[in-house]
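explain this:
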Amino acid sequence: MTASAGGSVQEAAEAFDSLAGSYQAAVESRPVTKELHRRIHHALAAALPPSGTVLDFGAGTGADSLWLAASGRTVVAVDLSAQMLEQLRVRARAQGLSGAITSRVGSTEVLARLAAEGSIFVGAVSSLGALNTLASPRPFFAAVAPLLPPGSPLIVSTINPWCLSELTLGIATGSWSRATRRLRGPQQVPVGRGVVTTHLHSLAQLRAAAEIEFELLAVEALPLVLPAPQPSAALQDRGGGALLELLMPLDRSLARRRLLSALGDHLLLQWRRRGSPSS
C-alpha cells in the first residue's frame, strides 16, 4: 500500500506495518480476495509480454509480484510499508523466487527515482486500493508514465465510490447512511493498529487523471454482485462460503457488462501507454 503526501505518510506506513504479519492469513487467503487477484492476473496475462520487468506499485505482501515472478517475469515491488515488503521477501525465498523480485520502500517518489535511474518496464500493476491512499491519482499516472514505453499496459484496481452491492445492501436494510457512505468523501479506515485515510476516485476522475499519458481500454467491476471483501469474510465465517462460490461465476459473467462494469466494489481498469501526449 501507499499513502499520499497530503496525509500522514508515517501514520499510514505504521498502520500497514502493524498489519503485515497477519495480512496473508487474514486478507489474502479469503476466497473473495483470491478471486479478485485471479481476475487481476488474468488481465495481466492477457496484456503483458511473456518476459521482462514489471512494476508492482503498492505491492503489499506480494500476491501479484509472486504471480508475476512465477510466470517468468522479473518485478520491482514498491510499497510504503517496509514490513509488508519484508513479508513479500519471506514468501519469495520460500518459493525460490528471490532473484526475480526487487523491493523499494516508498510511494510516488520512488517512481521518480526509478525514472531518474533510467528504469523501463514492460508493464505495471497497482492493485486493490493502493491508489486510494493518494488524495489525487494524478501524481501516480504522471510518475509511472516515463517508466513505460508507448503501447505498454498498466493494470489498476481501485476502490470505487459507486458500489452496487453496498448500495443494495444499505437500501435493503433501510440504512441510507450505509448505502451512501462511500459518496461522502474520504473514509477513515482501520488498518492494523492504525487508521488510514482512503480517497475514493470515480471512474471519471481516474480518466481525467490518466488521459494525457494513457488510453483506457477496458473497465471491469471487481466484484459486482459478490459482497466486498470484508462483508464476504464475515459471510464466510457464518457458513456462507458455498453461497460465495455460487456467486463467483455469475459475478464474472456480469462484471464487464455495459453500465454494470462501473459499479463494482473495486474497478479493474486496463490502460495502454499512449505513443505521445494527447491534445
Notes: The domain at 9-273 is CATH 3.40.50.150 (Rossmann fold). Residues 56 and 77 are 5 Å apart (CA to CA).
